[in-house]
């Protein structure tokens, strides 16, 4: 009998004290429930994830790193318009200037990179050099750099969305980052690996896919038809279901409150209606199949980002801006008791011929 666990489903590969994902629909960072963290400033929560300290210490540590130098700016602006932002992030991370001592040893460069990613994304989006306000709040500084008028609801919604995406245990991107870290590669190589994994449509890219499907449906009837046709054909509905949760993704519940507030009564309400119909129809179809699958955080997040001024293909890059702090936290944790990842594989290819005999 095969011992293969496809996708490492159910396989415990290491221990972590950074976040706890519970199947019953709960998420905590360093023992603090996500519900109690979403109203904190983003960098305070990032500080909790990285250093287990919930305060503003990262603001001072990262202040000198938030803007790009001329060489980095030139690199970003030289990228063709056809470059996907995630490709740009993955390529620039290992090439960023070296940092001064930030007090985190080998992880210093990782924090330096994390501080610069908002400027990379904003510079590429605006196609001109931008300045990130080093002493503004994280959400305000990024939204100002992409031309948002800084409506207080927009700032609070972005702050919430980013907090919900900082960390999520051994997801595919974080596991990729830890695999690379386990080889004793530098932190920037670990981050680039995580970003590469995050770019996939089955991981971070689901936010873009989910909203583009909603855009393709002109009304709720078409939304119902899409769900029924997709499931009948054995396909997946982007942003629906999560490998870890058997109840509603707690991040989705927290983010949908902001979609209600930002979309209803605006030009975005029709798109929100389609998303809700896809969500409702999917839930009905799953119940009829005896399955407990619900919308995850990516399903409604794209609409929040659109309202804040991000084009569809920049959604996952904004996700990466937050998740990079989780990658750094895992890099630090992995260094405490490192062992290179080297799983076994079950060989199922042809038998090997040796000296005319088959073994």
Would you mind describing this structure in some detail?
This protein has 359 residues and is mostly helical. It has two domains: 31-201 and 310-335, Citrate Synthase, domain 1, CATH 1.10.580.10; 206-307, Cytochrome p450-Terp, domain 2 (Orthogonal Bundle), CATH 1.10.230.10. Helix content is 52%, strand content 4%. It contains 15 helices and five strands. A three-stranded antiparallel beta sheet has the order 1-2-3, with no helix packed on it. It has a two-stranded antiparallel sheet with strand order 4-5.
Rg over CA atoms: 21 Å
Distance between the termini: 20 Å
- H-E order: EEEHHHHHHHHHHHHHHHEE
What is the spatial order of strands in the main beta sheet? 1-2-3
Please identify which CATH superfamily of the largest domain we are dealing with.
Answer: Citrate Synthase, domain 1
Unreliable stretches (pLDDT < 50, length at least 5) are none
Largest sheet: 3 strands, antiparallel
Give the fraction of residues assigned to helices. Answer: 40-55%
Beta-strand content estimate: under 5%
Kindly name the structural category: mainly alpha
| CATH class type of the largest domain | Mainly Alpha
Total strands: the figure is 5
- CATH topology heading of the largest domain: Citrate Synthase, domain 1
Indicate the overall shape: globular
Averaging pLDDT over every residue, what do you get? 93
Count of discrete structural domains = 2
What is the CATH architecture term of the largest domain?
Orthogonal Bundle
Total of DSSP H or I helical runs spanning 4+ residues: 15
């Amino acid at each position: 009998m095969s011992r293969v666990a496809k996708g490492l489903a159910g396989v415990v590969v290491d221990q972590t004290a950074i976040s706890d994902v519970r199947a019953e629909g709960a998420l905590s960072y360093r023992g603090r429930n996500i519900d109690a963290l979403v109203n904190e400033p983003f960098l305070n929560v990032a500080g909790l994830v990285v250093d287990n300290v919930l305060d503003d210490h990262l603001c001072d540590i990262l202040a000198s790193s938030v803007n790009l130098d001329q060489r980095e700016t030139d690199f970003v602006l030289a990228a063709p318009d056809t470059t996907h932002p995630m490709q740009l992030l993955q390529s620039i991370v290992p090439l960023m200037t070296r940092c001064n001592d930030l007090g985190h040893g080998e992880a210093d460069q990782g924090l330096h990179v994390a501080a610069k990613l908002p400027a990379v994304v904003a510079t590429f989006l605006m196609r001109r050099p931008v300045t990130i306000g080093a002493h503004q709040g994280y959400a305000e500084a990024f939204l100002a750099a992409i031309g948002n008028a800084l409506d207080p609801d927009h700032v609070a919604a972005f702050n919430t969305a980013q907090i919900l995406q900082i960390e999520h245990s051994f997801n595919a991107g974080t596991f990729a980052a830890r695999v690379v870290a386990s080889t004793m590669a530098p932190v920037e190589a670990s981050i680039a690996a995580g970003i590469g994994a995050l770019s996939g449509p089955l991981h971070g890219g689901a936010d873009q896919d989910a909203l583009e499907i909603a855009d393709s449906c002109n009304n709720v009837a078409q939304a119902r038809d899409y769900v029924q046709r997709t499931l009948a054909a054995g396909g997946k509905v982007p942003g629906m279901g999560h490998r870890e949760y058997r109840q509603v993704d707690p991040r989705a519940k927290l983010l949908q409150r902001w979609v209600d507030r930002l979309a209803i009564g605006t030009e975005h309400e029709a798109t929100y209606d389609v998303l809700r119909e896809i969500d409702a129809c999917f839930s009905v179809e799953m119940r009829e199949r005896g399955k407990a699958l619900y919308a995850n955080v990516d399903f409604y997040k794209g609409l929040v980002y659109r309202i804040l001024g991000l084009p569809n293909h920049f959604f996952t890059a904004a996700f990466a801006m937050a998740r990079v702090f989780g990658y750094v936290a895992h890099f630090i944790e992995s260094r405490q008791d490192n062992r290179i990842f080297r799983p076994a594989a079950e060989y199922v290819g042809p038998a090997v011929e040796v000296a005319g005999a088959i073994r």
